[in-house]
Amino acid sequence: MLPEAGSxxxxxxxxxxxxxxxxxxxxxxxxxxxxALPSAVLPSGCYSTAFPGMERxxxxxxxxKLTQNLQPIHLEVHNESHMHAVxxxxxxxxxxxxxxxxxxxxxxxxxxxxxxxxxxxELAGAVHALSILAxxxxxxxxNPYISQSPPCLGGSKYDQQMTxxxxxxx
Length: 170
Hints:
Elements: H1 11-36, H2 38-41, E1 46-48, H3 57-70, E2 74-79, E3 93-99, H4 108-118, H5 120-124, E4 129-135, H6 137-142, H7 160-169
Parallel strand pairs: 1-2, 3-4
Antiparallel strand pairs: 2-3
């Protein structure tokens, strides 16, 4: 599927097609590598609701940054966007469960600030809402329960007005 250099549409189309071809080849190689790496690189307690790699770039970035900055013994990243009035496939609403030795001796607000600082770029960009459950290993051992997130109250996807707004976006 490599484009031909002497195509009738000229060299600019050829270059665009060539870059697209190179990008797709690199992306497929990168996805393969990303799928192979997590078990070897990430701590055994890491968990994600999506496949690693480029299919979920925001979720993958959150998982990577929290892992690098906090070295958690347990990490869960849940994309809860589907529970909100956003287009299908969005990455705007997340819940993270972070269990980390660094949290020992910190107040809850200090823990949240640490997580927020690690995810500064995501919070300034794509992420609209972030729910944080930040526990010490001792707290996690005593209570590993994660409460279910409540339904969205800010414009439900089941609301007729919101449904029409979302259908107009597509």
